[in-house]
């Protein structure tokens, strides 16, 4: 699946609408700029476009201003990723004198000159009547409004000069492990236009896998245009097919979208553990899959399960159908508890200090706020309000880790792990000695209620239905 991110990066987003100031319009395509396109007073070019003598141009795709104003490519060359070349890279194809994303361009859908008709969009190189579930139709193109700097959070909501669009909000930094390349937030591990870093585009016929350009994806992965190499058996956004996304509350298991559940993972000492589904009414468990490493903390993000290794502290994306672990980040020491914040980061406790953990690259940001009393447990509700259990007492946390006690909270002793919301109720695993029990916690008064016994080896709880 190829979804536009909102500008003419290697003319990959030729489906984008033009960017307008008043009655004047500049398109994301370089061809829309001409010598007569001069900026009105006080106006600036769209983010990461350059103001050259011919108007607002994209230096990564403009043959007359390739990489910089006035730097023209020779006859027969194209401008690909800001450099003149004989062929296109980054997953695009040479059509005439331009590099075109034939997977998403409705004028060149699947091949040069093959246009979609009747208002159809181009998805995966085929004309379609609607955009995939993960995109929104803006103009005549499918746009990822979580990443598009011209359509950030919705159609025709551009970011300001110097800002990027990350998780549907304009800002100066990228979230969730993405890398800022110009005005785009990209996954340099899988993006063929920015493979490994902002300056490397894969050659024609290559894919980007694990940050390196290669001829094919790893075994078990499928090349999804505009996304990279994906395991279609366990990704909620790409479940069974590149353009098939699971609904909210569902997970992807063996290539099928299924109803989510309350999940528990073992985090005991050792070299492995198991993933379970947990009955929220009784604490009873059903074994789902073997995990190659014990998991000390877990949380869902974008429909996928993430877990922190008890042994190494590495952050893994966990395939809920097979238990396969995909390493996405490394941290020094296992973080205690993971709670998803509104900015896409996880709140956690690391050696008695509150920290945030980026699930995309493992960046651990210190807060210099201490006394989280590891081991501890974090859980966020559907609105990302964070709750924290410390020494048997329930608190709320703000984004700066300011703590607020819940009135009426009682210290009932023992240790808590795996705090998570499931269908609006806060659950946790409570340990007393060698025994474990599943409890619910009233967020209004902090009172704990035992639901039933649970395996004491289960250290992490997580649910896609907060």
Report how far the terminal alpha carbons are from each other.
Answer: 28 Å
Count of β-strands: 42
- Label the structural class: mainly beta
Q: Give me the CATH architecture of one domain, please.
A: 6 Propeller
Relevant CATH superfamily of one domain: Kelch-type beta propeller
Arithmetic mean of pLDDT: 82
Outline the structure in words.
Strand 17 and strand 18 form a beta hairpin. By secondary structure, the protein is mostly beta strands. The strands form 16 sheets. A four-stranded antiparallel beta sheet has the order 25-24-23-42, with no helix packed on it. Helix content is 0%, strand content 39%. The protein is built from no helices and 42 strands. The chain has a domain of 202 residues: 6 Propeller (Neuraminidase). It starts with 18 loop residues before the first strand and ends with a strand.
Note the topology.
Layout: E1 19-21, E2 24-26, E3 50-52, E4 55-57, E5 78-80, E6 83-85, E7 93-95, E8 98-100, E9 121-123, E10 126-128, E11 136-138, E12 141-143, E13 164-166, E14 169-171, E15 179-181, E16 184-186, E17 207-209, E18 212-214, E19 222-224, E20 228-230, E21 250-253, E22 256-259, E23 263-266, E24 273-278, E25 285-291, E26 295-301, E27 304-309, E28 315-318, E29 325-329, E30 336-340, E31 346-350, E32 353-357, E33 364-370, E34 377-380, E35 386-390, E36 393-397, E37 403-405, E38 415-422, E39 425-432, E40 435-441, E41 448-453, E42 458-462
Antiparallel strand pairs: 1-2, 3-4, 5-6, 7-8, 9-10, 11-12, 13-14, 15-16, 17-18, 19-20, 21-22, 23-24, 23-42, 24-25, 26-27, 27-28, 28-29, 30-31, 31-32, 32-33, 34-35, 35-36, 36-37, 38-39, 39-40, 40-41
